[in-house]
Amino acid sequence: GGGGGGGAEGEKGGSAPHPPYSAKALFRKQHLPAVKRQLGAEVSKQGLKAELDGMWLKADLGERAEFEAKAAADKARYDREVADENSSRLTQGTGSSKRARVEEGEEEEPATSSSQGEKRPFPADEMEEEPATPSSAPFGGIPKKKKA
């Protein structure tokens, strides 16, 4: 991507943290230049992907563990950046905002509509009946009526 200290390309609004890479993706990223040189400039993206995926499958457990550790560190980075972003969102805004009032110790009023951004429970979450289990209900959970 582009140079500079601004984060990854394709970020929404310029502030979303880049999602964490998987171990396989980090493996591909590290080995891509060598595989490109080996296979030549004419190789397709699909050809590169197939070669890199084959290398990943043949990689020994030690090499895989190295990339698993890198992926775990990247996941921790992502979680940290998301938490930082969420906390900065809570502190931004004007003093008259609902969040600012709540942070200053005022009581938050319950939401009266979903347009206020509050999550409302799904009606099925409040149901008292237990759903039919797949073993007792054929055809995808629709209970079969018993004959009297």
Write the layout of secondary structure elements.
Elements: H1 23-39, H2 45-58, H3 61-91, H4 98-103, H5 138-141
Characterization of the model:
The chain is an all-alpha fold and 148 residues long. The chain contains 5 helices and no strands. α1 packs across α2 and α1 crosses α3. The longest helix is centred in the middle third of the chain and has 31 residues. The chain is extended and about 55 Å long. The N terminus is likely disordered.
Distance between the termini: 69 Å
Class by alpha and beta content: mainly alpha
Poorly predicted sequence stretches spanning 5 or more consecutive residues: 1-12, 124-128
The residue-averaged pLDDT reads 73
* Morphology call: extended
Number of helices: 5
What pattern of helices and strands is seen along the backbone? Answer: HHHHH
Largest sheet, strands/sense/barrel: none
Number of strands: 0
Spatial extent as radius of gyration: 25 Å
Strand % is under 5%
Query: Helix proportion of residues, in percent?
Result: 40-55%
In short:
The chain has five helices and no strands. By secondary structure, it is an all-alpha fold.
Tags for this entry?
148 residues, mainly alpha, disordered N terminus
